[in-house]
Amino acid sequence: MSDLFHYAQHPHVERRKQTGPPKVAAAAATVHGTGPIGRFNAKVGLRITLIVGTMWTAYLFTLLTLVSAPAAFKTGNSIIIVAWIAQTFLQLVLLPIIIVGQNVQAAAADERSLATYNDASAVLEEAKQIQAHLQAQDEAIQQILNRLAAAGIAPDGSRPEPHADPAPR
Questions:
Q1: Buried-exposed string 110-141: b where 16+ CB fall within 10 A, e elsewhere
Q2: CA–CA separation, 2 vs 73, rounded Å?
Q3: Using CA atoms, how far apart are residues 19 and 68, in angstroms rounded to an integer?
Q4: How many angstroms separate the CA atoms of 26 and 48, rounded?
Q5: How far apart are the first and last CA of the chain?
Q6: Per residue in 131-168, pLDDT tens?
C-alpha cells in the first residue's frame, strides 16, 4: 500500500526556505541593477524618498511656497495667481503628502505580504503533517491486509472455498 504514492517536494519549497519573503533591496536591484552604480542610485533614491516623504517636509514646503504668495497675489493677475497655485503650492506641498500616503500604503502592503508568506509557510507545514499521517495510515492498512492474507481472508472479506478431495476413499 505504501508503494501507491511517493511524495515529491515541489522545487519552489527549497528556494522559498533559502530566500525568505521578498525584500526592498531585492526590488531595488531589479530596478537599478546589482552593480555599484545601481546600488548607489537605489540608496540615494530611497534616502531622498524617506526624507521628502514626511509630513514635516510638507509643512516646510508649505512655508516655502508662502514666501512667494504675497508677490503672486499682489499682481492681481489671475494667470499668475493660478500659476503660483498650480506650479508652486500644489507641486511642492502635494509631493511629500503623496509620498507619505504611498509609504503608509506600502507599509500596509508589506504587512499583508508577510502575513500571506507566513500563512503559506504554515499551510506547507500542515500539508507535510497530512503527508506523514497518510503514510502512517498506509502502513497500518498494509499491516491489516497482511494479517488478513495470513488468516486466509481476501481483501473483499470473502474466504476462499476449501478444496474438496476429488476422490473419496
A1: eeeeeeeeeeeeeeeeeeeeeeeeeeeeeeee
A2: 86
A3: 51
A4: 19
A5: 45
A6: 889 989 999 999 998 998 888 888 777 776 666 555 55
pLDDT at 19: 79
The pTM of this model reads 0.57
Rg (CA), the chain: 36
> Distance between CA atoms of 134 and 1, rounded to whole angstroms?
11
Strand, coil or helix: 7 = coil
What pLDDT digit, counting tens, does each position of 15-30 carry? 877 877 777 666 666 7
Buried b (16+ CB within 10 A) or exposed e, 81-95: eeebeeebbeebbee
> Three cell numbers at 49?
524618498
3-state helix, strand, coil in the chain (%, to 5): 75, 0, 25
**CB neighbourhood size of 32 (10 A):** 17
Residue with cell 526592498: 24
CA-wise closest residue to 9 among 135, 131, 120: 131
Give the pLDDT band (50/70/90) at residue 59. Answer: very high
